[in-house]
Design brief:
The chain contains 5 helices and 30 strands. It is mainly beta. The chain is globular, with a radius of gyration of 28 Å.
Length: 534
């Protein structure tokens, strides 16, 4: 049998060629998609807590390394929850990002990340801490990050918020020219403090070895003008009241200063920096607490009355990360101010709970009962920390509905001009590293000392604010920019905007009597940069 070859029609050849080209294009697209999906994991890391005097306190240095754990989303860090063997994997800073020498890729499932600094080999997720040797302060730093949750494969650059866990004591020492002393030749010691502990990376909890105490020598950094900064890094929870600080010169001259009985010093908070000023003049030593108060956003607090109490809240799902703090008056049953940080990863888009309830940090006897609104009508339960500033999840948002966070705010102010200002603050936050906010309510003014009252659900008097204020400090890179607002607690005039009520932070300090952002130079609080605050 003879087979005859068939000639393929021209139009069929065109179809075949078109089909082959289409396959090549589709295959190329799949390869490109695969490359995009396989982008190596890297981390954009920010630092919060413990304000330092040098730039390295808020930024990363060349060679810095972090340890990373990748775990199944929603699960605690255990050997069984670790994904793709990313178990204490080291990432090193490269420019502005932390990257790995051996590329790590995100899996198809959503994952969470646990991270810490500085990197070291560890056992059973327990990071050992020993503060016995204070010679190199930077080596004693320890930070923890647990904010990166539900990370999907489409996001290969993961944001991390590292929170400092240890406390810092900074003594600013000044020696007058009349004393034959040299700041370079003085040692400073602190008696009987805890120096050892372990940080559990699974739970985010620091466990202090309470059975161990010792005296430690601070790191003295002398300046040319016979002044010095003496630094101690301490474990949180340490009681610094009544501590006898000893200063000894090389020729044997001794000075002692005892720290005051101040409630801020009774239980040091991780991530806080506490400043002291000590002066030696004509052989006499004197000392005081410095202006610095804990975190940057917390105003200066000295000599609180028995009616005033400082309350600090941390995030319920990240106990090492601060939520907000307040200065609360138990008699007036309102907070003078509420201070808190804002940054992109703490902001959400929903989850308002309306979970009105008592603040667990304070006896209910000192709180208003506000399951329903204030009387008389026309006043809202005005949040000082807005609900929308903590709506990433339900547990965060519930903390904004504590009664201690509420004041009797004129309804049209709360729902109009004030709400617009709160929205603008969140808009600004999206454009910076961190926004430090102090929202306040004052029951009196310089010209009106008479108290006005609203009534809670039990008919009890609750002080009604005369005016509200906001003090803002924006951190962009290593720079800080400030602005403030002061608005009377009344229905605002028609067509007025919050821009009509702006003033400098320095001006607001004079009006309220508070010192805001005490770690910032006054020059940064005396002007408003209109290029920033648009």
């Amino acid at each position: 049998m003879i087979y005859k070859s068939k000639t393929i029609p021209q139009h069929n050849i065109c179809r075949i060629v078109y089909f082959m080209i289409t396959l090549l294009i589709l295959n190329s697209c799949k390869k490109n998609e695969s490359r995009l999906e396989q982008t190596a994991l890297q981390f954009a890391a920010s630092i919060v807590g413990q304000i330092n005097t040098d730039a390295t306190g808020i930024s990363w240095d060349k060679g810095d390394q972090i340890g990373i754990y990748m775990v199944k989303s929603g699960q605690q860090l255990t050997s069984a929850s670790i994904v793709n063997a990313v178990n204490n994997h080291v990432f090193t800073i490269n420019g502005s990002l932390f990257q790995s020498k051996s590329p790590i890729f995100l899996p198809n499932e959503q994952v969470d990340f646990i991270a810490y600094y500085p990197y070291r080999p560890i056992i059973d997720f327990q990071y050992p801490i020993d503060l016995s040797d204070q010679t190199k302060q930077s080596a004693l730093d320890f930070m923890y990050a647990s904010n990166a949750k539900n990370i999907a494969k489409t996001n290969s650059t993961v944001p991390l918020n590292f929170v400092r866990q240890l406390s810092k004591i900074a003594i600013h020492l000044s020696i007058s020219n009349t004393d034959a002393l040299d700041a370079n030749q003085i040692s400073v010691s602190m008696p009987s403090v805890h120096t050892q502990g372990e940080f559990n990376l699974s739970t985010g909890q620091l466990h202090v070895n309470l059975a161990e105490k010792k005296d430690i020598q601070g790191k003295v950094m002398a300046n040319s003008n016979n002044t010095a900064i003496v630094e101690f890094t301490l474990l949180p929870g340490e009681d610094m009241t009544g501590k006898t600080i000893k200063l000894i010169s090389t020729d044997g001259v001794r000075y002692t200063w005892t720290t005051p009985q101040n409630q801020l010093l009774k239980n040091l908070i991780g991530g806080n920096r506490y400043n002291f000023n000590i002066k030696i003049d004509n052989g006499e030593l004197s000392g005081s607490i410095g202006d610095s108060q804990a975190y940057l956003e917390i105003p200066k607090m000295n000599n609180l009355t028995n009616e005033e109490v400082f309350i600090q809240h941390f995030l319920p799902d990240a106990s090492a990360e601060r939520n907000y703090a307040m200065l609360y008056n138990k008699k007036l049953k309102m907070a003078y101010w509420v201070a808190y940080p804002l940054y992109n990863s703490i902001l959400g888009s929903g989850n308002r709970t309306d979970a009105w309830g008592y603040d667990p940090a304070l006896s209910t006897a000192f709180q208003p009962v506000l399951f329903k609104g204030f009387q008389p009508t026309g006043y809202d339960r005005g949040h000082q920390l807005p609900s929308a500033d903590r709506n990433l999840n339900i547990t965060h948002n519930k903390t904004t509905f504590y009664f201690t966070n509420m004041t009797a705010q004129a309804s049209r102010l709360n729902q109009g001009l004030w709400a617009n200002l709160e929205t603008k603050v969140r808009t600004w936050t999206a454009q910076c590293d961190t926004m430090y906010v102090v929202t306040g309510a004052m029951p009196t003014t310089d010209t009106d000392n008479l108290l006005d009252f609203a009534q809670d659900n039990d008919g009890k008097d609750i002080a009604k604010p005369k005016y509200y204020f906001k003090a803002l400090a924006m951190k962009k890179g290593s720079e800080y920019y400030t602005i403030a607002y002061k608005i009377d607690n009344v229905t605002p005039p028609a067509k007025s905007t919050f821009d009509n009520y702006k003033l400098t932070v320095s001006e607001l300090e004079k009006v309220t009597g508070f010192t805001f952002f005490p770690d910032l130079d006054n020059t940064k609080k005396e002007r408003i940069d209109t290029r920033i605050w648009k």
